[in-house]
């Protein structure tokens, strides 16, 4: 439908239509949101409406530290005190279950395998909760973060919660310093990243074609997912899905990972729906970028000029050239 939604009318209609059947609160549940308009069928709020349909989600509309953002490299501040990120796997491989959630490809490590990160901008130890994939219908889009206005075919997000302060993800996500997300851009190449290859080879990815499909993977080494660099960019932001809590430290790795064109194609063939419903590609599962406002983007990339007048030293002209295949050391 190519109309401008009048939300109050829609919600009124919605309440009238459903009030006899069930209370509206049961529909305003945590999964009642979407990235894109559905062609046919009932109204589901797209990103510009997330903050309006549910008062518990109002940060999505009025928050001032939201994610994702467009990383403008000219706004980055070199911070010589940023140490390398530390990944602790205990030297063990992990098992995990890969899901089609209807919105993302999601890999959840099983509880027996603890993987945590610390160091870098993090003051605490954070345990890996989920590996989540965002990707586009075209090669020029699909990442949530942009680099100087440029999108990438996809973005891997490794979502961790603060295990020093909180008992679990759900408690951490709504509290200060709760979440740390390591984000890695996905680009296309002849060869794919070893970890992503385990998830995205044809035999595996086709097991989760439809919503709620799940598939168990064993012997995964999360270290394989990390590109070979200690360079990153970091800022304070939010989770990128409702309720948009502003509790996330973002760490964007300064090198991409690669998947093949075929694997990207397989991702685009995943459906947001159950098998008995109409096929709707999961691709373009991205929230639009949000304003940076008064925040700093810090980096441990030494581009020689140091800026201390955070947040926006517009005179800085770093040598940073973004994610190129050859990368940086
Ligand atoms: C982080 O993971 C390592 C390796 O599994 C483990 O030895 C360490 O105790 C963990 N740290 C915390 C705070 O749980
Ligand atoms: C998370 O931890 C809190 C506080 O300990 C607890 O009340 C809650 O039930 C836990 N939630 C889950 C999903 O385990
Ligand atoms: C950053 O690079 C400049 C120029 O190469 C160098 O003089 C400076 O010592 C470096 N700073 C740090 C903290 O590495």
Written overview of the protein:
Residues 31-301 form the Alpha-carbonic anhydrase domain. Does not have a catalytic activity. Residues 1-21 form the signal peptide. GO terms for molecular function: carbonate dehydratase activity; zinc ion binding. Keywords: Signal. There is one protein chain. With 329 residues, this protein is an alpha+beta fold. It folds into two domains: 7-61, no CATH class; 70-299, Carbonic Anhydrase II. The protein is built from seven helices and 15 strands. The protein has helices at 7-18, 47-53, 59-62, 169-172, 194-200, 202-205, 261-268; strands spanning 70-71, 76-78, 85-88, 94-100, 105-109, 116-119, 122-135, 146-147, 154-162, 179-188, 214-220, 232-237, 248-253, 257-259, 297-299. Strands 2, 3, 4, 5, 6, 7, 9, 10, 11, 12, 13, 14 and 15 form a 13-stranded mixed β-sheet that branches. It has a two-stranded parallel ribbon with strand order 1-8. A hairpin with a 4-residue loop joins strand 4 (94-100) and strand 5. It is globular. The model is unreliable at 1-26 and 311-329 (pLDDT under 50). Residues 80, 302, 304 line the site of one 2-acetamido-2-deoxy-beta-D-glucopyranose.
């Amino acid at each position: 439908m190519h109309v401008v939604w009048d939300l109050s009318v829609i919600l009124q209609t919605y309440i009238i239509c459903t009030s006899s059947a069930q209370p509206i609160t049961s529909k305003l549940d945590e999964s009642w949101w979407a990235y894109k308009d559905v062609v046919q069928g009932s109204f589901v709020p797209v990103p510009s409406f997330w903050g309006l349909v549910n008062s518990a989600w109002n940060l999505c509309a009025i928050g001032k530290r939201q994610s994702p953002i467009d990383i403008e490299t000219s706004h980055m501040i070199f911070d010589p005190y940023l140490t390398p990120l530390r990944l602790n796997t205990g030297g063990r491989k992990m098992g995990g279950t890969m899901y089609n959630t209807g919105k993302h490809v999601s890999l959840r490590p099983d509880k027996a395998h603890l993987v945590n990160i610390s160091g870098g901008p993090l003051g605490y130890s954070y345990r890996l909760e989920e590996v989540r994939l965002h990707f586009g219908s075209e090669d020029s889009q699909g990442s949530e973060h942009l680099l100087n206005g440029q999108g990438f075919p996809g973005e891997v997000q490794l979502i961790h919660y603060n295990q020093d302060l909180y008992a679990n993800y759900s408690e951490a996500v709504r509290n200060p310093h709760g979440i740390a997300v390591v984000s890695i851009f996905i680009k296309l190449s002849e060869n794919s990243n070893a970890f992503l290859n385990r998830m995205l080879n044809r035999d595996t990815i086709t097991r989760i074609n439809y919503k709620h499909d799940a598939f168990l993977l064993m012997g995964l080494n999360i270290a394989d997912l990390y590109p070979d660099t200690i360079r990153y960019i970091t800022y304070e932001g939010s989770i990128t899905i409702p309720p948009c809590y502003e509790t996330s430290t973002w760490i964007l790795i300064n090198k991409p990972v690669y998947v093949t064109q075929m694997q990207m194609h397989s991702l685009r063939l995943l459906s947001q729906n159950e098998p008995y419903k109409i096929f709707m590609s999961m691709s373009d599962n991205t929230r639009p970028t949000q304003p940076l406002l008064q925040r700093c983007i810090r980096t441990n990339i030494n581009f020689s000029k140091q800026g201390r007048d955070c947040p926006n030293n517009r005179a800085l002209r770093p040598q940073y050239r973004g994610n190129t295949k050859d990368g940086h050391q």
